[in-house]
DNA sequence: TCATTGGATGAAGGATTCTTCAGGTTTGGA
DNA sequence: TCCAAACCTGAAGAATCCTTCATCCAATGA
C-alpha cells in the first residue's frame, strides 16, 4: 500500500547533481510562496515554476502532477513537526508529568512556529490531498511517542489514557490553527504557548483523577 | 463594507414562489452532497445543478458565481451554530460557572453534530472563501455571548478572561474537527463531548486561579 | 381569460489549466 | 578534450470549467 502511494504521489525522480537539488528546493519554496500570495485555487504549476525561476517542464521532471507536489511539501512539514515532538518526548522521560507536558506542548508550538508561513499555507491545501488521513497518521505517531514518555513518569500511577492524549493533541492543533490563521503577533503567540501548557496540564490532571 | 460583501458574494435574487424556494434548497443540499462525494476541487457548478435536478442556468439565477454559492452554505451553517450557542448562553445565566461551561460546550458540540455532514463538507472549502475571516467573526460573536453569560456567574469574582475564552473556543473546534474528519462513531462522540466539558472546566478554573 | 412577472433551460463562448515531449544546454568523469 | 547522462526549456495539445443569454414554460392576479 505504501508502494501505491509512492507511485501515485511520490516524486518522479530524485535530484542527483547539486544544480538539481537547488532546483527542487526552489520549487518547494515557491509552492509555499504561491500558496500564500495567490491562494490554493489559483496555485498553478506554471505559476509555481515561474516563481521558482524554472520552466514548467522542470517541475514535471520531479513531480508527476500538481497533487504530488503539494503532497510532498505537506508530508515534509508534518515530518519535521513529528520529529521535534518525538525528540522532546525522549528528553522528557522520567520527569514529573507536568513538566513532560510542558516540554511536549512547547516543542509542538515551537515547531509549528519555526515556519509559520508553511503552516498557514498548508491549511489551504490540506483538504485536497487526503489531508485528514495524513493528519491522522501523524496524530497516531505523536500519541505513541507521548504514551511511551508518560509510562516513565514517576508521579503517574495508572497507564496513560490514550483518548486523553488524542484530545490534547487535537485541542493544541485547533488553538494553533486559529492563532496562525489570524496572523497573531509574537507576543500573542507567547501567551498562547503558555496557556496551552496550562490547558493541557490541568486537563490531563483532571482526566487522570477521573479515571482513578 | 457589508454592502460590498453582499454585492460580491451575496445571492443574486431571492426566491419568491414556493417552487423557487424548493429549487434553492435543493441547490444548497446538492452542494453539500457533491462536496462530500467528489471533493472540493471537483465541485463544479454543472455537477451541483445536475445533482439538484435543475440546469446550470437556474443555479446562476440565484448565485452570481460558484464562490457565492459555497459562501452562502458556509455562512448559513455558521449562523446556526452561533444561534445554538447564544441560546445556551442565555439559558445558563446566573448558574454556577462549571455548569455554564458544560451547557455551552454541549450546545456547541450538538449543533455541529446536528448536521455533521455539512461540517465535514465545509472543512473542504473553508480555505477558499475568506474562510478564516468568517471563522474569526463567528468566534468573536461567540466570545461576546460567553462573556456576557460569565458576568452573571455567582461564583466568579474577577471579570471573565477574554483570552481564555478564545482559547477554549479554538480548542473545542480543533477537537471537533479531528473527530468529524475521522468519521468518529456516535459512542466516540459522546466521549469527546464529555471530555471537552472536562477540559474546558479544568482549564477555565486554572486560568481564573492564575489570574487572581 | 390573458398579460405580466417569475422561473427554468442548456448549448456554446471564452478562459484556464494540466501535462507532454522533442530538442537544446550543462555537468562530471574517462 | 569528449561523451553520456543529467538537466532544462516552453510551445502546444487536450481537457475542463465558469458563465451567459436567447428562448421557452409556469404562476399570479386583474
CATH superfamily of the largest domain in chain A: Tetracycline Repressor, domain 2
The arrangement of helices and strands of chain A along the chain is: HHHHHHHHHH
Helix content of chain A: over 70%
- Summed up, the domain count of chain A is 2
Instruction: Briefly note the structural class of the backbone of chain A.
Output: mainly alpha
Please summarize the sheet with the most strands of chain A.
Answer: none
- Can you name the CATH architecture of the largest domain in chain A? Orthogonal Bundle
The largest chain-to-chain contact, stated as pair and per-chain residue counts, equals: A-B, 41 and 41 residues
Task: Return residue spans of chain A where pLDDT drops below 50 for at least 5 consecutive residues.
Answer: 1-7
Oligomer: homodimer
| CATH-defined topology of the largest domain in chain A | Tetracycline Repressor, domain 2
- CATH level 1 class label of the largest domain in chain A: Mainly Alpha
Query: How many strand units of chain A?
Result: 0
The coarse silhouette of chain A is elongated
Span between termini of chain A: 41 Å
Nearest-integer average pLDDT of chain A = 92
Amino acid at each position: 500500500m505504501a508502494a501505491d502511494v509512492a507511485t501515485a504521489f511520490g516524486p518522479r525522480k530524485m535530484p542527483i547533481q547539486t544544480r538539481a537539488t537547488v532546483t527542487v528546493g526552489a520549487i518547494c519554496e515557491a509552492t509555499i510562496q504561491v500558496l500564500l500570495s495567490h491562494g490554493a485555487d489559483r496555485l498553478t504549476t506554471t505559476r509555481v515554476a515561474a516563481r521558482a525561476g524554472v520552466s514548467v517542464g522542470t517541475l514535471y521532471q520531479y513531480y508527476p502532477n500538481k497533487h504530488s507536489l503539494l503532497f510532498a511539501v505537506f508530508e515534509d512539514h508534518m515530518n519535521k513537526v513529528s520529529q521535534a515532538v518525538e525528540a522532546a518526548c525522549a528528553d522528557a522521560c522520567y520527569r514529573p508529568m507536568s513538566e513532560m507536558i510542558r516540554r511536549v506542548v512547547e516543542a509542538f508550538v515551537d515547531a509549528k512556529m519555526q515556519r509559520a508561513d508553511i503552516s498557514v499555507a498548508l491549511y489551504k491545501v490540506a483538504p485536497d490531498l487526503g489531508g485528514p488521513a495524513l493528519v491522522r497518521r501523524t496524530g497516531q505517531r505523536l500519541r505513541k511517542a507521548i504514551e511511551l514518555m508518560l509510562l516513565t513518569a514517576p508521579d503517574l500511577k495508572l497507564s496513560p489514557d490514550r483518548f486523553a492524549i488524542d484530545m490534547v493533541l487535537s485541542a493544541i492543533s485547533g488553538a494553533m490553527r486559529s492563532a496562525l490563521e489570524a496572523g497573531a503577533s509574537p507576543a500573542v503567540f507567547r501567551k498562547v504557548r503558555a496557556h496551552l501548557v496550562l490547558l493541557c496540564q490541568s486537563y490531563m490532571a483532571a482526566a487522570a483523577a477521573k479515571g482513578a
